[in-house]
């Protein structure tokens, strides 16, 4: 297998750090360049981080002394790279422009950012669910006038706990979904040290999160038609997103109504047997068991189960019939691994295996 030379743009932020830690021993991807804001440029990665490293493992020795680039110095950063992961903290229009500059410099962009999620020819991929959307890249390259360059994005972290649980049930006609998500502080790029007001507190508002949680599944479940991805028209989804005092892990309470109500046994069987392209291809970051159901009434729990399958699995529990909807259940995913950097790494593996990188 070819070893790809990779850059991380936005390497000092929470998701950028997660990229760096996940890629330390990656069998296919070697991080050779790191970039962040102009104030980090010229410093070593360790110097640029200062005291902000928030991962459970030390700063990777292979990257600690890499000299940082200015993320906006696209030509220098992109030179010699096969592709970049992008997780910058900027205004949306600035991110859109920056990512397109990298793509036009013939450097593919695997993005954690939301700026391009609704660009019609940019695929937003959860690899187990809509791997076929990668074929829109050909149309995007024609628009950009590139041979290699393109942009592919991952979806918002909040919906990656409950959308995978609904995917194996879609042929029963998932009609209406209500989801309340209880989201970790790392989703805001914070720790308890940097956000002490979250200790012993719950905040019932996360800016923009409910809109993303309700609309992004429509693109994931959409269809590639011509030069764009047409959004799905159903199911109807309503969400409420709440910030809770945990470090990592987004928990969702889900209520669902079907056109053709399945049995509980059939739902459990579908979850157990569900697998996608990453499992078929045996990609390095793919969880062996994507969806895991827990029979115990008090499971899954955020602290105990967020690292299921190295943080790449989704944990489900408490499936039962509901008095207003057909069924309700809870599910959990690691927001900075499956929901952010890990999901993007898995998408890059999928794209590499299919010849796009």
From TrEMBL:
EC number(s) from the headed UniProt entry: 1.2.1.11
Domain Semialdehyde dehydrogenase NAD-binding: 5-137
Cited PANTHER family: ASPARTATE-SEMIALDEHYDE DEHYDROGENASE
InterPro entries linked to this entry: ASADH-related (IPR051823), Asp_semi-ald_DH_pep-lack (IPR005676), NAD(P)-bd_dom_sf (IPR036291), Semialdehyde_DH_NAD-bd (IPR000534), Semialdhyde_DH_dimer_dom (IPR012280)
Top-level EC class as recorded in UniProt: oxidoreductase
KW Electron transport (keyword) present: no
Protein name listed in UniProt: Aspartate-semialdehyde dehydrogenase
Gene3D superfamilies: Dihydrodipicolinate Reductase, domain 2, NAD(P)-binding Rossmann-like Domain
Single GO MF descriptor: aspartate-semialdehyde dehydrogenase activity
Family stated for the protein in its record: Belongs to the aspartate-semialdehyde dehydrogenase family.
Keywords: NADP, Oxidoreductase
Lineage, broadest ranks: Bacteria, Bacillati, Bacillota, Clostridia, Eubacteriales
CDD domains recorded: ASADH_C_arch_fung_like (cd18130), ScASADH_like_N (cd02315)
